[in-house]
Specification:
Elements (H helix, E strand, L loop, with lengths): L2 H10 L20 E2 L5 H21 L7 E8 L2 E7 L3 H14 L11 E5 L3 E5 L1 H7 L2 E2 L11
Parallel strand pairs: 1-2
Antiparallel strand pairs: 2-3, 4-5, 4-6
């Protein structure tokens, strides 16, 4: 992700991304957001939703801890957003964002779908970016892709 987009997330959600300043031996957030710019809006909205939930609920229940993001990356074509101090509601929001990432082009943010390159590299991209990056459609009948 571009440095300026990453910095905007760090600035707008300092409590969520507090681990961005830690040493790499302490947190993977040291490496920043390990995905392309197309998911910026998705990550921003996810961050906003989680932080609003925490802020609201801490007013009424001081036992609710601040969520801290430990890693943000693409894995097998989907968004992975790892956190500590989560709960069932927050895990549901994260799961929803993961599902949305599988329909959002990681490169440009347009509507996309999961594709494959060289039989092993997965990425969610739109038709235009798939052609540019040389990704192919996935054969839905493949026995190795039963998770789709």
């Amino acid at each position: 992700m571009k440095k300026e987009l990453q910095e905007k997330l760090y600035t707008d959600f300092p409590k969520l991304y507090v681990q961005g300043n830690l040493d790499p031996s302490q947190s993977a957030m040291h490496w920043g957001f390990q995905c392309d710019d197309g998911w910026y809006d998705l990550i921003y909205n996810l961050s906003d939703c989680v932080q609003r939930y925490i802020d609201y609920n801490q007013k009424y229940n001081p036992d609710i801890q601040q969520v801290e993001v430990t890693c943000v990356k693409e894995k097998f074509g989907g968004l992975c957003w790892y956190v500590i101090n989560s709960n069932e509601y927050i895990r549901g929001i994260i799961l929803f964002a993961n599902h949305m990432s599988l329909k959002t082009c990681e490169k440009c943010g347009s509507q996309g779908k999961l594709r494959i390159k060289d039989k092993c590299l997965y990425k969610t991209v739109c038709d235009k970016c798939a052609q540019e990056l040389r990704f192919d459609d996935i054969d839905k009948n493949s026995p190795r892709l039963t998770f789709l």
